[in-house]
Amino acid sequence: MSIAGGKVRWGILGCANIAVNEIIPAILAASSAEVVAVASREIGKAKAVADRFGIAKAYGSYEQLLQDESIDAVYIPLPNHMHCEWTIKAAQHGKHVLCEKPFAMNAEQAQRMVDACREHGVKLAEAFMYRYHPRYAMIRDIIQSGEIGELRGVQVAFSFQIYEVGAANNIRMDGALGGGGLYDVGCYTVSGARLVTGLEPEAATVQALYASEDHAVDMMASGLMEFPNAVGLSFQCGMWAEFRNTLQIAGSHGRIDIPEAFVPTPGGANFRVLTKGELREVAVPAVNAYEQQMEQFSRQILEDRPLLFAPEDAVQTMKVLDACRLSAVSRQRIVIN
């Protein structure tokens, strides 16, 4: 597929809030990308979004958008249980794919997505926008420099109160659609710990509180993941607690505190390093992580460069989430193969 005009032409496969509030504005701000089409199963909704952002084309079905040969890549913000199906269909139509987190419902689906995109020669990435923020490269450099000593452990908390944003008719409250806190915010705890440690967990032990309305929906989860070298991740995540969004990395001689780990407020991306009793704050460039994600992924498509994060990374995250969900149900420690 040739790409005209030096910009990746994006189609948006759905009108979810994340697409309208974050991704479309991010594409519009990127120098290497443009939005040319949006689709919804309700044509009126697609037209409303198109009119709001000056998007040329609105489609009343996802299939119609995929059949548009002028589109180079698609962003998929559909409900979790639809990620696998529509990623594979997009690949079959020759479209590069940015798929919203969590990547899939399980590791088996995730691997099928990766295989389909490889077979059809298109790039595939998981939309973990926080990973594109420059502060995580800075944090990894500090860890690798030895400033905080040997890595000892990681603590992560990511929670919100779903009853404050409206639980009624919220797809997060439907287990059949991939609802639940582990899928929605637990994926960040797994991804974040894997990113900063550079290690893969070997086992997981998780306890969860389930919704009375749907026993497949975990409202809160707490757990321990075992990494090599006796490094552990302790985490809490879920949809029924006060908002938290923190990550702490403990070393033998210091620690790194990230107070707004995954969703920083404007100007809130700075983090703190404590080494042998001395505290310093690290200033981080004030950038929009969504814009960074769209700019970098689009550049990788245009220049046919390797991805910053290979899609196999998303498969590994799903393997860990599979183990977490199984541990919560079985109340057992689950070894991750």
Automatic annotation (TrEMBL):
Q: Which keywords are on file for this protein? A: Oxidoreductase
**InterPro entries associated with the record:** Gfo/Idh/MocA-like_OxRdtase_N, Gfo/Idh/MocA_domain, GFO_IDH_MocA-like_dom, NAD(P)-bd_dom_sf
Ranges where the GFO/IDH/MocA-like oxidoreductase domain occurs:
136-256
Supply the Pfam families for this chain. GFO_IDH_MocA (PF01408), GFO_IDH_MocA_C3 (PF22725)
Q: Can you provide one Gene Ontology molecular function annotated for this UniProt record?
A: nucleotide binding
**What SUPFAM superfamilies does this protein map onto?**
Glyceraldehyde-3-phosphate dehydrogenase-like, C-terminal domain, NAD(P)-binding Rossmann-fold domains
Task: List residues of the Gfo/Idh/MocA-like oxidoreductase N-terminal domain.
Answer: 8-126
Keyword Oxidoreductase appears in the UniProt entry: yes
* Keyword match Oxidoreductase: yes
The family annotation for this protein states: Belongs to the Gfo/Idh/MocA family.
Name listed for the protein in its UniProt record: Putative dehydrogenase
